[in-house]
Amino acid sequence: MVQVETKTVVEPIVKPFDCLHYIDGKFVESVDGKTFNNVNPVTEEVYGTVAEGSAADIDLAVKAAKRAFEEGPWGKMTVNERSRIICKVGDILEARQEEIAQLESLDTGKHLKFSRHVDAPRAAANFHFFADYMISIGTEAYQDETHNALNYGYRRPIGVVGLIQPWNLPLFLLTWKLAPALAAGCTVVIKPSELTPMTATRLMGILKEAGVPDGVVNLVHGFGPVAGSAINKHPDIAGIGFIGQVSTGAKIMAEAAPTLKKLSFELGGKNPNIIFADVDIDEVVATTIRSSFTNQGEVCVCGSRIYVERQIFDEFVERFASKTRELKVGDPFDMSNDQGALVAKVHYDKVMSYLKIAEEEGGTFVTGGKRPDGLDKGYFIEPTIITGLDDRSRCVREEIFGPIVTVIPFDSEEEVIEAANNTRMGLSNTIWTNDIRRAHRVAQKIVSGLSYINCWFVRDLRTPFGGTKDSGLGRVGGSHSWEFYTEITNICVKL
Ligand code: NAD
């Protein structure tokens, strides 16, 4: 019989490129001409340069955004005209999904299966959702019979907003902020992560093609303490939409305080995944594989603390470990792999340091715990399951943001609720049980912004998304995003 060779490596249709700023509708170099290198996380080779922005570049971008807000056509357009342009951005992104997915995988090291399935389609969906949402949303109104008056809320855009972005889902999360900001009529200055500049840069050309007027969206590359800090302090920026680490959120808040900016923060998590004994273990294992290792564990709602009721602890660990061992790590463009590389050396070193901490703390590596054999280059780490640690462990308390989970047994509902709440973070949790009353009871007792019952990362864009405690400030999604990017005036009319 003739053997047919199955080709599993996708031939890229994209090439890495040098990234410039985009200010007032033009791609430009930094005022001082400075650049930094963009490194391929799979080969560890430099594959491009990025303009390195300073306060001077941010100032030019803010000036362009302010002019566009005050004098340009954007503010004079009807809601329907703006909605059509925003919808067109979504259409172009949808038509160019493969290019976007490949660029994202190239820049972040994430597997193409994930960027094709999540990053690229979600970027398009964010524009389509807010294009529709903005033309259907109403306003609040109260008939005051005591004073014979009518009160209604009139909303206007807040002005120029700064969007400071992370590297884990670069275009998906940027568009999650940009689409509602544009829908509300704001103009924007973007600072993407220095680790993943490519898809944000590519988006700028797409915005132009869709008809977004010059100056409405501006982008400055660079590092947080310089370009990011200049956004925090700029007096003409009215609000900042930020996604990133808790510690960075605190710095932004401190630097933005003197100019009293509106702030929307989506920050880190240390999310508990609680599994009661009455579940279908196969179903739970299948989803727990995703909630643990999707995007190399670099999704803010990944469940890295897994609590399992003692009766099924051993069986769960065995089945979970067996499925985890089947995951293949390697080239993100090889479709026979499941997991790609971590984004950069700095993050790889951080995640590896937690493997050392786990060892020192007496943890048992059920799977992983090292670089995959045979992969000498690239920031790859095996999917790792650790047992034998408790809530005192740094691996259980601190956000690692990599393919590492701890599994811990529990004996009672009260005990697991206490453990789940024993953290300064409160982004999300997942509860697995077929007892409907217990599911609701536990979800209401854990202090976090999101609770998934018998599912994970199921997203309806109309619902409030975000974290409580140290995990964030405010909510986004549907009316929550709308409220952030608009300011309300109450108009009281005597009848
Ligand atoms: P980070 O905080 O290191 O960087 C995020 C952005 O902030 C980058 O653009 C960076 O240059 C900029 N920055 C750094 N210092 C700054 C400063 N002083 N002023 C202004 N900007 C500054 O975060 P990261 O490592 O890129 O992203 C990973 C983190 O993001 C994780 O903690 C993850 O949980 C979190 N995250 C949260 C959500 C959510 O929805 N809650 C979603 C995705 C990621």
In short:
By secondary structure, the protein is α/β, with parallel strands linked by helices. The protein has helices spanning 55-70, 79-95, 97-108, 112-136, 170-184, 198-210, 224-233, 246-256, 281-293, 310-325, 345-360, 394-397, 413-421, 436-445, 478-485; strands at 21-23, 26-28, 35-39, 46-51, 141-144, 149-157, 160-164, 187-191, 217-219, 239-243, 262-266, 271-275, 303-309, 364-367, 384-387, 404-410, 425-426, 428-432, 450-453, 468-469, 472-473, 486-494.
Kindly list the characteristics that best describe this protein:
oxidoreductase; 15 helices; Aldehyde Dehydrogenase, Chain A, domain 2; 6-stranded mixed beta sheet; single chain; Aldehyde Dehydrogenase, Chain A, domain 1; 495 residues; 2 domains; 7-stranded mixed beta sheet; globular; alpha/beta; 21% strand; binds nicotinamide-adenine-dinucleotide
Molecular structure report:
The protein is α/β, with parallel strands linked by helices and about 500 residues long. The protein has 2 domains: about 20-270 and about 470-495, Aldehyde Dehydrogenase, Chain A, domain 1 (3-Layer(aba) Sandwich), CATH 3.40.605; about 270-455, Aldehyde Dehydrogenase, Chain A, domain 2. It has helices at about 55-70, 80-95, 95-110, 110-135, 170-185, 200-210, 225-235, 245-255, 280-295, 310-325, 345-360, 395, 415-420, 435-445, 480-485, and strands at about 20-25, 25-30, 35-40, 45-50, 140-145, 150-155, 160-165, 185-190, 215-220, 240-245, 260-265, 270-275, 305-310, 365, 385, 405-410, 425, 430, 450-455, 470, 470-475, 485-495. A 7-stranded mixed sheet has the order 14-15-16-13-12-18-19, with helices on both faces. Nicotinamide-adenine-dinucleotide (NAD) binds near residues 191, 193, 244, 268 and 269.
